[in-house]
Specification:
Layout (H helix, E strand, L loop, with lengths): L1 E3 L4 E5 L6 E5 L3 E3 L8 E4 L7 E10 L2 E10 L2 E4 L7 E4 L4 E15 L4 E14 L2 E7 L11 E10 L2 E13 L2 E9 L1 H12 L2
Antiparallel strand pairs: 1-4, 2-3, 2-6, 3-5, 5-8, 6-7, 7-8, 7-9, 10-11, 10-13, 11-12, 12-15, 13-14, 14-15
């Protein structure tokens, strides 16, 4: 079963224009990616605009690029099959809302700086996590070019301490792999994600 979670960030790439970031508004499921019903998405387009392109689709199976159409706030996967999954998520994982605070190491070009961040982990596995956070102040985004993040995450068994290396970063979302995790927390995390 393929699941696209509510809040997932999708990217539509259309010929001759900049990539269009989209947010999935409701969870959608299907046996295969090609069978997904239209996804309700938040878009900056006018209601009557139609766009065709390649959609970077983040789902429970990983990340895939598929042909898609955006029309009237709905993203529809076109064709019989996707162009292929480019990231496999083999590690056991578990979605949720786990409060997190920490410090991000940001590359500023000629130097590096530390920035305090706060938010929540919305998806966690035995190898990494998806963090949705901001740096505070008036900015609704994370600072760009985060190299790694030291996080304190409130989990059901207590506070988990970990260092995360950035894999992908967009707006207020950061996907990363564990660079370091406390051995006791690693054991508790494995039991937690496998207990579903």
């Amino acid at each position: 079963m393929i699941t696209v979670s509510a809040g997932s960030t999708l990217t539509l790439r259309c010929p001759g224009m900049e990539a269009i970031p989209l947010v999935c508004l409701a969870e959608v499921r299907a046996p295969f990616i090609a069978d997904l019903p239209p996804l309700p998405v938040l878009s900056l387009d006018e209601p009557g605009v139609r766009r065709y392109g390649i959609l970077e689709l983040t789902s429970s199976a990983g990340v895939a690029w598929v042909e898609a159409e955006l029309r009237g706030g709905l993203m529809t996967v076109l064709g019989d099959s996707p162009t292929g999954v480019v990231q496999r998520r083999d590690s056991p994982r578990r979605p949720g809302v786990y409060p997190a605070t920490g410090t991000a190491q940001v590359d500023t070009g000629d130097s590096q700086k530390l920035v305090a961040i706060a938010g929540h982990v919305q998806d966690i596995s035995t190898s990494g996590l998806l963090l949705r956070a901001t740096a505070g102040g008036d900015s609704p985004h994370l600072p760009s070019a985060i190299l790694r993040t030291l996080l304190h995450v409130t989990m059901p068994w207590g506070e988990m301490n970990t260092a995360v290396t950035t894999v992908d970063q967009r707006s207020d979302q950061l996907r990363g792999t564990f660079e370091w995790i406390d051995p006791g927390d690693a054991k508790a995390l494995a039991g937690f994600v496998l207990s579903r």
